Amino acid sequence: MWIARNWRDYEVIDTSGGEKLERWGKYTLVRPDPQVIWETEKKDPRWLKSNASYSRSSSGGGAWQIKNLPESWQVHYGNLTFNVKPMNFKHTGIFPEQAANWDYITDKIKNAGREISVLNLFAYTGGATVAAAAAGAKVCHVDAARGMVAWAKDNAKSSGLESAPIRYIVDDCVKFCERELKRGHFYDAIIMDPPSYGRGPSGEVWKIEQNLWPLLTLTAKLLSDRPLFVIINSYTTGLSPSVLTYMANSTFGARFKGRTESEELGLPVTVSGQVLPAGAAGRWTPVK
Fold this sequence. Notes:
By secondary structure, this protein is an alpha/beta fold. Helices cover about 25% and strands about 35% of the residues.
C-alpha cells in the first residue's frame, strides 16, 4: 500500500460506523466513508465537537451540517497550498491520499535531468498539476468541468505557480486526446483520474468499464519517445490494483519496455494506528 504519511495540515483522527473524523488544518470534519464497516468506540471528543459533518440521506445524496466553518480555507502540503471547502457529495476539493502520488511525481520530475511535459486528465482541482509544476514540469491540465479548472487555477496561484507553464483546458478528455494525437503533441508523463461515471461538457457519457481501455490505448500513442511515467488512479469498486497493472502493461507496455506497480492508496489513522484504504493507483515506468 502507498500511504500518504507526510501531511501536517491533514489527519484522519478516527474511524467508526461508516464515518471518518478528519482534521483539515485547524478544522475538524466528520464525513462518510464506505470502507469503514467496523463499529468501534468513538472516544475522541471531536466526534461531537466537529466544525461540520456530512450525513447521507436514506433517499440518496446527503447534506452538510455546518456548525462553525468558513466558506473556504487553505491547507498546505510541503510547498503546495490548496483551497478547500465543503462541496456536494461530501467532497472538499482534494483527495489527501493522493499525496503519495504527489511525492512520486515530484521525485520523478526533479530527477529526470531534463524538462518534462505532463498531461493530467480528469485533473479535477489540480493536486497533481501543482505538484508537477512545482517540480519544474510543463503541464497540460484537462477537465470537463469549468468550475474545477477555475479551482485548479486558484490552487496554482495559492502555491505561487500562477506564472508556471500550465495550460488549462475545459474539454472532454477523450476528444482532447484525439485532437492532440492529430496535432502531433506528445507528453513525457501522463496522469489520469477517471471517474466511474461522468459526462463531458457536451453531454458525452463516460463509463469506466467501457471507456478506460480505449482511453489507455489512445494515451499510449501520446507518450513521447522518452516517457517518464504514467499514473492511473481508480476509485471504482471492483477495479483492483492487479487490473490496473494488466491494463497498463498491455497498452503502454505494447509500445515501450516497462513495468507497472499497482497498490491501494491509504491514509494513516491516528487513534487506531491502522491505515484506511482510499482507492488504488497504477504507476507504469519504462525500463531502460
